[in-house]
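Quick review question:
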């Protein structure tokens, strides 16, 4: 066996030697000879299977770079798509990428070349890159990836660019460069190319750019800048620009006429609010001189902001303005406005403060604050816009109200300051009269009981305790005259239906009231012993240097009164008139009558003439707003006229009328201090609305509450949606001293259908002063981007002002997205001292 194994090994070795010699000396020469004579075919070319996995999915996974973003495949389409390995050629193509929670980014062009290896992109023809944040169109676009901070970031250039920014800005430039880098937000190019991290910012650089909010064909105004740098971005779940636009060497043009030059400007290029400078304000006034203003806007989150608005007047110096707004939640909002100036001519500080605050909480608490305060009553007339009552006098009322609602009652604390300034040229003014009067609540707490059912009746009442006061400003050389007193007032009332007496329904009110005054008037100023046939006013305050109506220095006093009111109401009476034709009206008319009779019987008080007359708790303490000691009978009638043009339509309330008259068996004191007995208190209210374009109102009242008119006639005509006319005559007691003021107010507006031309006017005339107090006429002509306006103002100023009255004509230029940019006075002041 050993011999057989050796023989086998020898044979294997011999076989290997023979095979090797055969390959070397026979096969190799044959192979070389065959290749030389080209007798064998070429080796086949093996192409990679690109359809297995897209290269733009593998690209972020290449070694040597950390990337945590999820792969997001592109979607492309076109009239012609050519796939040459790593490069796509699209004709009339579209490339789109969409992030979850964000908006689409779409690129469209006549020709697109996209390299999936280096992620470069070239687009030519009509190129459009658009998203919810902006829209860019150009004729050539190139995008490529560059290395920055060991990371690839997209950058590129565009030529012949039109860039649209919300809300309506249009930027036109011949050349644009951009770069997307890691920052606070996800760049739009980063979303399109899929590179980098989830947070990116895009910087655009425009050269020789034109900026305008108007379409290309209607560039009414635009700004030319040598360069513009813009930062934009967005993040998932939110759209908006997170940067600013910086412009250099800006020329503002109206048409082709330059109107302003600025070396540098900055504005927020974002949809949401951002801090920044607002457009400047330029104006001229012959009294204040050249006016230059620049405002700065600062948001505080999404629910609050502030605007600082300094304005420099060449003749009076700097006026500082501040406006702040806040609305942190649905139930809480407010605003604050402050103006301050120290004029060069007087060197005295002058200011105006307005504060409005509203709270409504779910737990039942609520609060209101309305503060209006000024250093003097001429501040608004000389340095601001007048917010006034119909006679042109600024209103300076302030109040703070805090309360809580409970199941059976409501609790509140109320403080107020009602201030009236009097002027030397007032018809009731003399040297002994106060310069201003304030009515103060310091404060007053009140608990009001909700109606509690007791059979057919309801029980309600209230209790309030507070400190009241009159402050009289006697002039710079005299101390402030203050009269203060405490008042506690408590009352209960039972009201309800007594029953039916034949066709009449009987309703009754019975009440009792107790009031404690820590002080009353020094003298019996309101005298009930006046003969009943006289209808006189109390002694004129200008003839009484000690101000008897407000001099609360008497002893403490209590007032008990009982009051009752019984009312009989007849059922509604009506009649229909079918197919009635009257003047231009044709249709059905229904006339409804509601008559009633009421009797009031209140207890008397021999000290009624000593009680202060601060509010209705003093002047009308009885049930149904009746006076102390009132014994009266009242006749009332309500009427309605309903009409319809045909039976297929419903009735409309065309005319509403309410008429009432009282007969007083014993003398009473009106709220304004007048004494009356017999037939009086004749009140009439009529509203006529025959159609949607016309409304007429008539009012006549013998007695008035503060801030209302005792007689007025008004008309309101709506000719078209943009054309209206208003006219009102009134005889009013708005003055805190109940001195009547009579006047007329008219106004209206007119506008064309295309809103290019507009006319607004308002005229106020005071019969007592026999002069126009405040009037305004404004004519406006505008296009979608530019508006021109001419305004005429007539503002009546008192004698102590440097000017008796002011007649002014202003020209204003307003630009879209910038507001009123320029205001110039082209008139003059008349009546200067």
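Suggested answer, residue by residue:
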């Amino acid at each position: 066996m050993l011999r057989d194994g050796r023989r086998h090994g020898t044979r294997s070795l011999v076989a290997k030697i023979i095979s090797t010699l055969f390959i070397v000396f026979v096969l190799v020469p044959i192979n070389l000879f065959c290749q030389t004579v080209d007798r064998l075919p070429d080796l086949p070319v093996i192409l990679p299977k690109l359809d297995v996995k897209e290269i733009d999915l593998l690209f972020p996974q290449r070694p040597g770079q950390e990337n945590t973003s999820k792969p997001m495949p592109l979607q492309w389409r076109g009239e012609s798509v050519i796939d040459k390995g790593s490069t796509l050629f699209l004709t009339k193509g579209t490339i789109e990428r969409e992030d979850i929670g964000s908006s689409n980014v779409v690129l469209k062009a006549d020709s697109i070349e996209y390299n999936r290896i280096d992620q470069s992109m070239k687009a030519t023809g009509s190129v459009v890159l658009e998203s919810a944040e902006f829209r860019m169109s150009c004729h050539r676009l190139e995008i490529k990836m560059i290395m920055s901070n060991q990371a690839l970031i997209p950058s590129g250039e565009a030529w012949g660019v039109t860039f649209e920014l919300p809300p309506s800005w249009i930027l036109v430039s011949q050349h644009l460069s951009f770069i997307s880098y890691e920052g606070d937000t996800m760049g739009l190019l980063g979303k399109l190319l899929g590179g980098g991290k989830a947070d990116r910012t895009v910087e655009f650089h425009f050269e020789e750019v034109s900026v305008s909010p108007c379409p290309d064909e209607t560039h009414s105004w635009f700004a030319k800048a040598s360069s513009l740098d813009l930062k934009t971005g967005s993040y998932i779940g939110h759209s908006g620009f997170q940067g600013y636009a910086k412009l250099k060497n800006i020329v503002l043009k109206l048409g082709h006429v330059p109107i302003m030059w600025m070396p540098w400007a900055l504005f927020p290029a974002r949809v949401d609010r951002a801090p920044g400078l607002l457009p400047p304000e330029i104006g001229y006034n012959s009294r204040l001189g050249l006016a230059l203003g620049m405002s700065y806007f600062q948001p505080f989150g999404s629910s609050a902001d502030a605007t600082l608005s300094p304005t420099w007047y060449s003749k009076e110096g700097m006026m500082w303005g501040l406006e702040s707004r806040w609305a942190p939640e649905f139930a809480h909002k407010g605003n604050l406005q402050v103006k301050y100036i120290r004029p060069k001519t007087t060197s005295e500080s002058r200011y105006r403060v307005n504060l409005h605050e509203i709270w409504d909480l779910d737990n039942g608490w609520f609060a209101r604050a309305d503060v209006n305060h000024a250093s003097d009553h001429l501040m608004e007339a000389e340095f601001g816009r007048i917010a006034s009552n119909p006679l042109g006098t600024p209103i300076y009322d302030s109040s703070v109200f805090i309360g809580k609602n409970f199941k059976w009652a409501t609790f509140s604390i109320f403080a107020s300051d009602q201030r009236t300034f009097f002027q030397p040229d007032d018809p009731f003014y003399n040297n002994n009269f106060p310069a201003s009067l304030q009515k103060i609540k310091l404060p007053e707490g009140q608990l009001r009981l909700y109606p509690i059912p007791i059979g057919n009746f309801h029980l309600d009442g209230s209790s309030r305790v507070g400190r009241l006061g009159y402050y009289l400003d006697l002039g710079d050389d005299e101390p402030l005259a203050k009269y203060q007193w405490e008042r506690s007032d408590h009352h209960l009332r039972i009201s309800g239906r007594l029953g039916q007496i034949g066709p009449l329904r009987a309703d009754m009110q019975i009440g009792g009231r107790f009031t404690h005054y820590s002080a009353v008037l020094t003298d019996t100023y309101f005298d009930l012993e006046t003969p009943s046939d006289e209808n006189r006013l109390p002694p004129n305050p200008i003839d009484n240097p000690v101000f008897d109506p407000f001099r609360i220095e008497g002893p403490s006093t209590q007032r008990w009164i009982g009051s009752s009111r019984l009312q009989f109401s007849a059922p509604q009476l009506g009649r229909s008139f079918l197919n009635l034709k009257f003047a231009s009206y044709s249709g059905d008319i229904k006339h409804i009558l509601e008559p009633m009779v009421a009797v009031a019987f209140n207890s008397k008080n021999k000290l009624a003439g000593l009680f202060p007359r601060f509010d209705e708790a003093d002047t009308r303490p009885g049930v149904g707003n009746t006076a102390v000691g009132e014994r009266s009978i009242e006749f009332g009638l309500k009427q309605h006229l309903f009409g319809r043009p045909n039976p297929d339509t419903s009735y409309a309330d065309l005319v509403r009328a309410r008429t009432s008259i009282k007969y007083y068996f014993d003398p009473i004191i009106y709220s304004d201090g007048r004494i009356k007995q017999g037939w009086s208190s004749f009140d009439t209210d009529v509203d006529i609305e025959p159609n949607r374009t016309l409304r007429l109102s008539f009012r006549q009242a013998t007695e008035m509450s503060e801030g209302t008119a005792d007689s007025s006639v008004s008309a309101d005509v709506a000719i078209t949606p943009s054309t209206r006319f208003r006219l009102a005559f009134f005889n009013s007691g708005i003055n805190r001293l109940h001195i009547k003021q009579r006047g007329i107010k008219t106004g209206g507006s007119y506008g064309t259908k295309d809103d290019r031309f507009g006319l607004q006017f308002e005229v106020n005339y005071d019969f007592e002063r026999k002069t126009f107090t405040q009037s305004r006429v404004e004519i406006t002509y505008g296009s979608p981007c530019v508006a021109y306006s001419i305004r005429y103002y007539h503002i009546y100023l008192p004698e102590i002002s440097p000017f008796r009255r002011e007649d002014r004509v202003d020209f204003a230029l307003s630009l879209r997205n910038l507001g009123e940019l320029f205001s110039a006075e082209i008139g003059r002041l008349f009546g200067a001292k």
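Why it works: The helical segments are 2-36, 55-58, 188-193, 379-383, 616-619. The first helix runs from residue 2 to 36.
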